[in-house]
Amino acid sequence: MPVPRRFDRRPPERDTTRINERIRVPEVRLIDDEGQQIGVLKTPDALAFAQERDLDLVEVAPEARPPVCRVLDYSKYKYEQAQKVKQARKHQQQITVREIKFRPKIAEHDYDTKKHHVERFLRHKDKVKVTIMFRGREVTHPERGTAILDRLAEELSELGVVEQRPMQEGRNMTMMMAPSKAVLAGKADSAEAADEVFPADAQGDVAEEALESALESGSASSEPVSEPPPTTQEPAAEEPESAPEPVAEEPETNADAPLGDSGTAAAGSTVS
To answer: Would you kindly state where each structural domain of the chain is located, as residue ranges?
Structure first.
């Protein structure tokens, strides 16, 4: 089931610019379509002047005495004004204010984590409001909050500038930081990427290694390299095949032969 639309009681937006018959003043100062001033004319005469050229009589300065009217194509004029507003809105830069809170007794690891958050906000071209929250008797030692804010501003001096110095308001101390000109121009990110690829400490080592490799390659190409003589492998002597060992034949025994004292048949007896 479709949702019924709610009745909008607001009046429709109406163009307040007065043109043609909506101009009710007795006389106007007229400017033609080429931008030349015609002079002060009666309103009907100025309207007839515009209609002869198939254009509109538009009141451009109603506060003047007499009002200033111009002869132009009103539809084209409205389109050009809308385009100018659109271009101006496109070039506007919207600034967002982020806030991050610290404590006077913040641990070192927590400080590093929050500092990285502030750095990320500044790289996104946002302003950062840094707040130190005091509790209980901590408010009697504002120098601790000032020390933390000064340390943060010094460590992030390449990315942000201090717009508002540390100022205490009740139990909170605030400082406002804005992105620096290098961040707004996009130079900070490119410099950081270059440092990640070639760190400043390693640039000298890279140059020395490149020089050493060039010298080694030059010395290697100047000195002839002696190749070792080819080695010939002698064929291995073939071992003679061993003759099969003869198998000793066992003498046949006769089961009917008389047994000796040991209970075995006499060796070599033959059957009669």
So the answer is: 20-73, 97-185
Burial of 66-78, coded b for 16+ CB within 10 Å and e otherwise, reads: ebbbbbbebeebe
97-185: CATH topology is: Translation Initiation Factor IF3 (3.30.110)
Global confidence as pTM: 0.42
Distances in Å between the Cα of 33 and the Cα atoms of 38, 74, 152 are 10, 11, 61
Per-residue CA distances from 204 to 191, 193, 207 (Å)? 18, 18, 5
3-state secondary structure of 71: strand
Query: Which pair of tokens denotes residue 226?
Result: 């002696």
Helix (H, G, I), strand (E, B), or coil: what is residue 57?
Answer: strand
d(CA 153, CA 103): 16
Per-residue confidence (pLDDT) for residue 123, from 0 to 100:
92
> Does position 190 have pLDDT exceeding 60, yes or no?
no
